[in-house]
Amino acid sequence: MDKHAEPSGESPVINVSNLEKRYGSGESEVTAVDDVSFSIEKGTVIGLLGPNGAGKTTTIKMILNLVKPSSGEVEIEGADPQSESESVYRDVAALLEGARNAYWQLTLRDNLHFFSGLNGFEYDEERATEIISEVGLSEKSGEPIRNFSRGMKQKAAFACALIQKPSVLFLDEPTLGLDVEAAQNLRRIIKELAEEDRTVIISSHNMDLIQDICDRAIIMSDGRVIADDEVQNLIHVFNTKRYRFSVSGAFGSEIRNALAEFQTNDFEETEDGVKFEVLLGADENFYPLIDRLREAGAIVENVDSLDDDLEKAFVRAVDESTESEPRGVVQ
Predict the structure, then answer these.
(1) What span, in angstroms and rounded, lies between the C-alpha atoms of 94 and 103?
(2) With contact defined as beta carbons under 8 Å apart, do 40 and 46 qualify?
(3) 265 pLDDT above the threshold of 70
(4) How many whole angstroms separate alpha carbon 225 and alpha carbon 54?
(5) How confident is the model at residue 301 (pLDDT cuts 50, 70, 90)?
(6) How high is the pLDDT of residue 289?
(7) What percent of the chain has pLDDT over 90?
(8) Rounded alpha-carbon distances, angstroms, from residue 174 to 38, 202, 213, 223
(9) Which of 138, 239, 278, 288 has its CA 20 to 30 A from that of 257?
(10) C-alpha distance from residue 22 to each of 15, 81, 320, 328, 329 (Å)
């Protein structure tokens, strides 16, 4: 598993080098981010993953210059955001989880007017109307955001980020509060942003979202980067294979005893036998498993290969990291 994916050769739009954030001192010192380094290429969609407390939000806030690093460097388009924040962040926007990303006393359209001017752009009424329609709030554009539901507030925050015409967009848990249709619409918009050569960084627990739209995933645990690679490489890097068996002619207890040496779970009794899942460490284990079933008097009716997914790859990566060096950190 490549913990530091190789850049494409083009200058990265974001470069994070040896970033650290510590709180407190002495015995009470807590490390939130521990020597994190990665680069992000222009026009890519990156997933930043990790369990609660992994350091994802702190890392994003340090990149956005909302939290000062204890050490390390951040560059956006080759510039230092701490010393050149005004120019650097003219083309950067963010939707932060749990934050008021819009002014609730103002209407959505007024918010778009404000955020458009915040970065020095002339307000474009036609573009604002288009964005409002894209996020599905056309009928609510004249209402104060304080009257919006949670999902509507999330859509409004996304609209406020889009109106700033960012070349780099940070999205922290962007699908929270969204229904299925709205979440699908958000995916479509993000894909279109990437096609326009914009860069999107998504921090989310929604593995389907990450797997569907991200080019690459950076997995953090205990404040460190534990995996950094293309999404498909992270999925297929694990050699384990999952299968769903349907067998007849034997009882569940007989099957369990026969397969004691294998990792089996999710047993389901049927009229003729039993169904179960098995996790195999290598392909050569498949045929010994079949032999054990036959010895138990079971007839294999059907076998389905269950494709692995990013969520399971993520869980395994975090588990391996935690087992090797568990440490408490803050988010």
Answers:
(1) 15
(2) yes
(3) yes
(4) 9
(5) confident
(6) 86
(7) 43
(8) 22, 8, 13, 22
(9) 239
(10) 20, 20, 24, 12, 9
Write the CATH number of the domain with boundaries 241-306. 3.30.70.100
Distance (Å) of CA 97 to CA 30, 56, 154, 177, 293? 22, 12, 9, 11, 50
Mean pLDDT of all residues in the chain?
85
Higher pLDDT, 314 or 297: 297
Q: Can you spell out the DSSP letters for 12-34?
A: PSEEEEEEEEEES-GGG-EEEEE
CA 157 from chain center: how many Å?
Answer: 19
What's the N-to-C CA distance of the chain in angstroms? Answer: 24
| Average pLDDT of the segment spanning 259-283 | 83
Q: Which helix (H) or strand (E) holds 168?
A: strand 168-172
Tokens of 187: 């995916």
Q: How many residues does the chain have?
A: 331
Where exactly does CATH 3.40.50.300 map onto the chain? 14-236
Question: Which residue, among 1, 35, 6, has the nearest Cα to 310 in the 3D structure?
Answer: 1
The DSSP bridge partners found for residue 229 are 217
pTM: 0.72
CA pair distance 254, 272, nearest whole angstrom: 14
Pick the closest to residue 75 from 66, 230, 67, 85 (CA basis). Answer: 85
Model confidence pLDDT, tens digit, residues 80-128 = 888 888 778 888 999 988 767 889 999 999 999 999 887 777 889 999 9
Listed in order, the ranges of the chain carrying CATH 3.30.70.100 are 241-306
CATH of span 14-236: 3.40.50.300
Residue 236 has pLDDT above 80, yes or no: no
Picking from 222, 206, 223, the residue whose alpha carbon sits closest to that of residue 214 is 206
Nearest Cα residue to 39 out of 81, 84, 93, 3: 3
- Lowest mean pLDDT of 134-143, 160-169, 181-190, 250-259, name the range: 250-259
